[in-house]
Write a sequence for this structure.
């Protein structure tokens, strides 16, 4: 329970962080809140010669609307999301996910960027990013690039970050007037990994049919996934119980949960089906409120 | 029968040092030049060690050093746990080698310097595999570590109702807040050991025997101990390794267990399966019981797997007057860490088996479970065919049903469970205490050592009552084998009974001495002279007590159980301190809820521990617990200070009441702890 030795850097400028990262390459690891990395280091499941703690880097902890997006700095803590009035009022899907992450101690330290870039299939924010069709701003020595949330996490604990790159910002599209979102998560006890969780974001047309659907899933596959087929199935439809039920069936048929201590794959499918149906209904109801 | 509601709180215990951060635990001990030990452990449940280089390992120990644990000198030699694995490893987490450095970071780094080649072998993981597989140890004929039978066999009567079921308590980690640890320092020919322990003498005797030292060359002192729940009663391989290394290097050696090591390598409790058969008359009166139990003893006989079999068997008729009973049982060797005692240590298992059958009988008869129980109790003391002496159960249970307001609860809610049990404390072989009066103050040392219960509180109270000495003048010291000649340990719901009796015995002796010298007794006279008294009070008689629990639950749509009520009605004899009694019960009830709904050690098919973090091992959280409702009956025991056993009552009574409540709420017959959400939804 004691990490192997490492050299520790705490840069205050992004430029310095990037320089350190390119200097030490694969031997270095970026740390923000440390809520996932520190346990791995202590258990010696992971060992790095250089830890670059970016938590002091300036300008990466703001939450603000600019242009078409809500911009969330990667160093924003989950607790800051939880407490932010704008997020509370306008981004319920994000707020609902934030308040259900781990426990208050973890939320006080854990960051939005860390939650996403750790690549853990049971972390909650990637599914929200997928459902809201968010973009991720990646910073590297050569400059910035934007990627879709979908293509960011490529496998369990693996992202499309290239060597020398850091996740800088998360850009959530500002919700259109007739849209609704929610995040429903099922776990056994506080602090447990979830059995399953579903993020749904729906944009409604004038006639109350679904113009655009976003559904992201947590804990039911090796990586956070988009429920493509179900999205296409509900687009153009109004949500009735039967539609939500069929969409949930499609979601379950595509999920690949694994059996573990928290339940068998069958149990997880059962849970997923019920919360998916509920989430689609709830997001639709919220979309109807103008 | 006096009953007290716990509104009038008595605040007098002095464990404030733990709150103030001034406790002194093993890890607080720092000695110049001390080495820190890290243990290299087996990554396999079963493997042949092909080669091993680096660190200290079995080849370094020399011929004089024996294996650890009970039975080191008897029984089947190959089932005795070696200090280091030698030739083969037999469980994940078994010590293979140890490394030492001046701090624990460097010590952990050194693990990489040890090279081991293993040839993995197919492990025996479950009870059923143990029964059907060739022996895991070469020197044995089968995987049966021990067998025991209780009662007289009888041919199945032609009863109108015969019910059978197979019931199980999964393995569970003891998970005290402080894991194991010790500092060993060999100096001037004496091995000094500071340990986190329930029993300094047990550690001393174990180390002396293992290391081939004479007993007067080993001194074991207790550090403040942050919980134990049975797991710190004896010695473990690591204790022998650290002591050996201290002798070898001539330096103090510290070892502090990590949580992951605790989960893999500290003896867990439970892991018992019971096959039950009951015979009943048409009216629900049980005429006979047959049982067969299987204890998953783990890889060696060093835990309690062996002796738990007859102990569990003896209690398997519960508090009921069942005339005929016959139980067979086996402890089986598997490639898992050796099983050990966990709060209750056989009592919760036996109670689980019989209480689950009483509930099954109630359902079969379409009777209320309280009525089925009443029907099977005696108005008079009863000697069970399995050898247990119990007091008249019915009058107590009738009161318990009223005190717990069971009838009302059963009408109000669907998920209601009621349990009843008899607690048999572990009074064997008695306990020691020493009291020294000097400089106007009293010091007390005990053979059985508090690991968080706060023995000092009741000791001060008893001394105050017996000798009229104010509490501030009495200091209770941590265990030290150089001060008490002998001693057992703090376990088995025994301390208030045995230590209390020993203290009272010393007090009476002192009083007589003072009366003789001064003509009459006064505390001033007592404190004006030096005194030094030691007793080993033998109380081998059985001193049982009754208890009942009520639980109510609601089940969420995904099978998550919310415990609404968890109430108790226990006979504690005389409550020596009400607040401490409550604390014991609250903690035990949390553990009872933990065992029933959250906690378990689960192993994969190849014997790897799946639940290797404290979160996965399922220790209950504050949000999982309701407000506890506790009522106490104070029926004084025959002892002068009136105490009865208490510590294990909640871990016996809560699981049986709670699982019944869940069973009623879900409509599904439940046979196993822990109950998982998945078991409860369609």
């Amino acid at each position: 329970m004691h990490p192997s030795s490492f050299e520790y850097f705490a840069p205050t400028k992004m430029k310095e962080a990037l320089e350190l990262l390119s200097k030490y390459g694969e031997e270095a690891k970026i740390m923000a809140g440390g809520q996932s990395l520190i346990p791995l280091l202590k258990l010696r499941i992971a060992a790095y010669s250089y830890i670059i703690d970016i938590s002091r880097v300036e300008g990466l902890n703001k939450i603000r609307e600019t242009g078409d997006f809500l911009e969330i700095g990667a160093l924003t803590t989950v607790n800051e999301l939880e407490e932010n009035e704008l997020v509370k009022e306008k981004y319920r899907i994000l707020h609902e996910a934030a308040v259900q992450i781990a426990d208050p101690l973890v939320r006080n330290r854990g960051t939005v960027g860390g939650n996403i870039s750790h690549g853990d299939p049971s972390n909650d924010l990637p599914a929200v990013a997928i459902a809201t069709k968010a973009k991720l701003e990646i910073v590297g020595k050569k400059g910035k690039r934007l990627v879709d949330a979908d293509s960011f996490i490529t496998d369990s604990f693996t992202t499309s970050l290239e060597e020398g790159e850091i996740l800088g910002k998360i850009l959530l599209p500002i919700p259109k007037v007739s849209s609704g979102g929610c995040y429903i998560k099922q776990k056994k006890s506080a602090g447990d990994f979830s059995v399953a969780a579903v993020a749904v974001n729906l944009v409604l047309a004038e006639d109350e049919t679904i113009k655009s659907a976003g559904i992201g899933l947590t804990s039911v596959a090796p990586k956070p996934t988009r429920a493509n087929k179900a999205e296409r199935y509900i687009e153009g439809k109004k949500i009735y119980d039967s539609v939500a039920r069929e969409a949930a069936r499609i979601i379950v048929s595509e999920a690949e949960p694994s059996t573990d201590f928290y339940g068998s794959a069958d149990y997880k499918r059962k849970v997923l089906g019920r919360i998916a149906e509920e989430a689609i209904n709830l997001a639709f109801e919220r979309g109807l409120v103008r | 029968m006096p009953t007290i509601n716990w509104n009038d709180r008595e605040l007098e215990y002095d464990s404030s040092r733990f709150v103030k951060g001034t406790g002194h635990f093993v890890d607080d001990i720092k000695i110049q030049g001390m080495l820190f030990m890290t243990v290299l452990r087996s990554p396999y449940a079963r493997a042949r060690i092909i080669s091993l280089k680096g660190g200290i390992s079995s080849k370094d120990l020399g011929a004089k050093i024996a294996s650890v644990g009970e039975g080191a000198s008897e029984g089947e030699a190959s089932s005795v746990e070696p200090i280091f694995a030698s030739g083969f490893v037999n469980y994940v987490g078994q010590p293979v080698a140890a490394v030492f450095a001046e701090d624990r970071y460097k010590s952990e780094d050194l693990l990489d310097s040890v090279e081991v080649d293993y040839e993995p072998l197919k492990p025996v993981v479950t009870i059923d595999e143990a029964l059907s597989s060739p022996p895991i140890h070469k020197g044995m004929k089968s995987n049966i570590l021990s067998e025991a039978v209780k009662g007289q066999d009888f041919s199945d009567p032609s009863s109108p109702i015969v019910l059978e079921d197979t019931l199980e308590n999964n393995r569970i980690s003891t998970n005290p807040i402080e894991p194991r640890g010790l500092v060993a320092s060999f100096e001037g020919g004496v091995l000094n050991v500071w340990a986190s322990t329930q029993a300094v003498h047990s550690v001393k005797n174990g180390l002396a025997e293992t290391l081939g030292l004479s007993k007067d060359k080993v001194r074991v002192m207790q550090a403040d101990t942050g919980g134990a729940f049975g797991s710190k009663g004896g010695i473990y391989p690591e204790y022998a390794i650290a002591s050996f290394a201290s002798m070898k290097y001539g330096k103090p050696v510290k070892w502090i267990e990590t949580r992951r090591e605790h989960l893999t390598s500290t003896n867990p409790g439970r892991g018992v399966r019971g096959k039950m058969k009951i015979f009943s008359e048409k009216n629900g009166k049980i005429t006979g019981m047959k049982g067969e139990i299987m204890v998953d003893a783990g890889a060696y006989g060093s835990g309690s797997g062996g002796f738990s079999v007859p102990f569990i068997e003896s209690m398997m008729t519960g508090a009921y007057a069942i005339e005929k009973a016959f139980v067979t049982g086996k402890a089986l060797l598997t490639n898992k860490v050796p099983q050990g005692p966990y709060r209750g240590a056989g009592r919760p298992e036996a109670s689980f088996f019989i209480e689950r059958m009483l509930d099954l009988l109630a359902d079969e008869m379409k009777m209320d479970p309280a009525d089925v129980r009443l029907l099977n109790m005696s108005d008079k003391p009863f000697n069970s065919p399995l050898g247990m002496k119990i007091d008249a159960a019915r009058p107590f249970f009738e009161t318990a049903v009223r005190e717990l307001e069971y009838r009302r609860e059963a009408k109000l809610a669907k998920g209601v469970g009621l349990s009843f049990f008899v607690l048999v404390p572990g009074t064997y072989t008695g306990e020691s205490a020493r009291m020294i009066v000097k400089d106007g103050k009293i010091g007390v040392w005990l053979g059985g050592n508090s690991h968080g219960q706060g023995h000092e509180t009741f000791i001060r109270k008893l001394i105050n009552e017996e000798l009229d000495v104010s509490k501030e003048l009495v200091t209770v010291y941590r265990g030290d084998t150089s001060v008490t000649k002998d001693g057992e340990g703090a376990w088995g719901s025994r301390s208030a009974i045995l230590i209390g009796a020993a203290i009272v015995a010393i007090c009476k002796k002192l009083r007589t001495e003072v009366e003789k010298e001064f003509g009459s007794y006064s505390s001033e006279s007592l404190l004006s002279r030096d005194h030094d008294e030691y007793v080993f009070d033998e109380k081998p008689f059985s001193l049982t007590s009754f208890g009942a629990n009520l639980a109510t639950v609601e089940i969420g749509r995904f099978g998550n159980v919310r415990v609404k009520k968890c109430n108790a009605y226990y006979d504690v004899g005389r409550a020596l301190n009400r607040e401490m009694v409550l604390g014991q019960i609250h903690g035990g009830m949390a553990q009872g809820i933990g065992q029933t709904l959250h906690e378990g050690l689960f192993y994969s098919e190849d014997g790897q521990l799946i639940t290797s973090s404290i979160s996965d091992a399922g220790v209950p959280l504050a949000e999982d617990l309701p407000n506890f409702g506790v009522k106490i009956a104070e029926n004084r025991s025959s002892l002068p200070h009136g105490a009865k056993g208490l510590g294990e009552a909640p871990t016996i009574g809560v699981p049986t009441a709670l699982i019944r409540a869940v069973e009623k709420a879900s409509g599904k017959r439940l046979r196993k702890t822990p109950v998982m959400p998945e078991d409860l939804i369609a």
Q: What stands out?
A: The radius of gyration of chain A is 19 Å. The domain at 179-288 of chain A is CATH 3.30.390.50 (Enolase-like; domain 1). Residues 265-288 of chain A form the longest helix (24 residues). Chain A touches chain B at residues 1-5, 43-44, 186, 188-192, 195, 260-261, 263-264, 267, 270-271, 274 (CB under 8 Å).
